[in-house]
Amino acid sequence: MADEEFDLVIPPGTPRTIIRDAALKFNVEIVSVTRPLSYANMVNDERELLALRGNKEEIEKANEFLYQKIKEFIES
Question: What are the distances in angstroms from CA 52 to CA 8, 43, 67, 69, 70?
Answer without folding.
Answer: 5, 25, 13, 15, 15
